[in-house]
Amino acid sequence: MSSELQTRVESSDVTVKSRRIVVGIDGSPASFSALEWAVSQAELTNASLEIVAAWEWPRSFGWSLIPEGYDPETDLQKMIDPILATLRATHPQLFVDAKIVEGHPAPVLINESKGATLLVVGSRGHGEFIGMLVGSTSEHCVANAACPVVVFRANA
User: Fold this and answer.
1) What is the pTM of this model?
2) Would the N or C end of the chain have less CB density within 10 A of its end CB?
3) Is 20 helix (H, G, I), strand (E, B) or coil?
């Protein structure tokens, strides 16, 4: 490989690594739509794509029954592995990676937005009342992310 070509390839690798789009997925149709959009955007902007899934142990007041064999991290890995395989096969020029992080999705995505050029999240569209009761991950991301945020709303 010529040194000029090698320099261009290395420069391209640095560019892709410095342009990172983070997309949060949770298994919902809205998050898969957001992922689809993020893949297209990453290709258009020559950015890398980082898929992030967050999980946390259920919290409750009082006794909580957690089913035997409950392993949310493994369940998420089983969801993400085929997604990664498909994306790598259908978009070979796209650098794509995934992270599974323990924690509530909102702060996890805020943390992952550091150094990213864009954060993409899906919105289930539960409405204002439920949002007031349980909080909205997408709303939290819009208000606190370290980069621009695209909220991809599920089709009604």
Assistant:
1) 0.80
2) C
3) strand
Tokens of 152: 């991809």
Q: What CATH number was assigned to the domain covering residues 13-56+73-153?
A: 3.40.50.12370
Query: Residue 57, class by beta-carbon neighbours within 10 Å (0-12 exposed, 13-18 middle, 19+ buried)?
Result: exposed
pLDDT band at 8 (very low <50, low <70, confident <90, very high): very low
Q: Residue 78 — very low, low, confident or very high, per pLDDT cuts 50/70/90? A: very high
- For tokens 């996890």, name the residue: 108
Please tell me the distance from the alpha carbon of residue 79 to that of residue 12, in angstroms, as a whole number.
Answer: 30
Pairing mode, strands 149-153 and 20-24: unpaired
The answer to whether 122 touches 24, Cβ cutoff 8 Å, is: yes
Copy the structure tokens of residue 38.
Answer: 């993020």
Residue with tokens 């621009």: 148
Domain parsing of the chain, residue ranges: 13-56+73-153
Displacement of CA 109 from its chain's centroid (Å)? 8
Beginning with the edge strand found earlier in the chain, give each strand of the sheet holding 149-153 in spatial order: 96-102, 48-55, 20-24, 118-123, 149-153
C-alpha–C-alpha distance, residues 95 and 131, integer Å: 34
